[in-house]
Amino acid sequence: MINEVLWIVFALINFTMVTIIYRIFGKQGLFVWIGMSTVVANIQVVKTIEMFGLTATLGNIIYGTAFLATDILNEKYGKQEAKRAVWLGFATLISMTVMMQISLYFTPAPNDVAQGAMKTLFEFLPRVAGGSLLAYIVSQYVDVLIYAKLKALLPDNKWLWLRNNGSTMISQLLDSFVFCFVAFFGEFPANVWFEIFITTYFIKFIVAALDTPFLYLAKQFPRRQ
C-alpha cells in the first residue's frame, strides 16, 4: 500500500502547487506550469510503478495537472487563452525533445557518468515519441473545446464540476487511446494492448477526479493576468 498512499499524496501535492502558482503569478504562472509539466511528465513516464494491482507510469499525475491548468484558463480567461497554453506546451515538448536528442550525439568525456542515464531518459522509439506528441495535442485541444462548449451550455457555477470532469475525463480517454494506438498497436496481442489501454485510462480517470476541488479553489482567486 506504500505506493498507493504515496501516489495520492503526490497527486494532492501536484494539484496544490498548481493552485499556489496560479494564486501568486496569475495567468502567466499557469502558462509556465503547462510548459514545465509537459516536459517533466515525459521524463517521469520512463519510470513504472505497481499500484492498485496494476503496472502504471509515474508521469500520469503531473500530466494531469496540465489539464487542470487549461481548465482554469478556460474558466477564467476563455477558450482562446486555453488554446494558446496548449500550443505553448506542445512547442515546449518538441523543443525539449529536439535539444535532448542532439545532446546525446555529443561524445562523452572518458570520466563522464551522465551519458547512460541521459540515454535511458531521453532516447526514444519513434512510435512512442510520435504517440506522445499526437496524444498531447489532440487530447488537450479536445479538452479545451469540450470545456468551452459545456461552459456555454451550463454557465452556472453549480455545473463547474461537470465542466471540469466531463472535459477532462473524455479528453484523457482520447489521450490514452491515441497514445496506445500509435505507440503499441500491433506490438502486442489485442488482449494485452486492450489491458494496457484500460489500465492507462483508469489511472488518468482517478487523477481527473482528484483535481476537481482545486478548480473550485482556483475559481475563488482574483482574476490576474
TrEMBL record:
One Pfam family cited in the UniProt record for this chain: Vut_1
InterPro entries tied to this protein: YhhQ (IPR003744)
Sorted UniProt keywords: Cell membrane, Membrane, Transmembrane, Transmembrane helix, Transport
Subcellular location: Cell membrane
Membrane topology designation: Multi-pass membrane protein
Ranges that cross the membrane: 6-25, 30-46, 52-73, 85-108, 128-148, 169-186, 192-218
Family to which the UniProt record says this protein belongs: Belongs to the vitamin uptake transporter (VUT/ECF) (TC 2.A.88) family. Q precursor transporter subfamily.
Function of the molecule: Involved in the import of queuosine (Q) precursors, required for Q precursor salvage.
Name this protein carries in UniProt: Probable queuosine precursor transporter
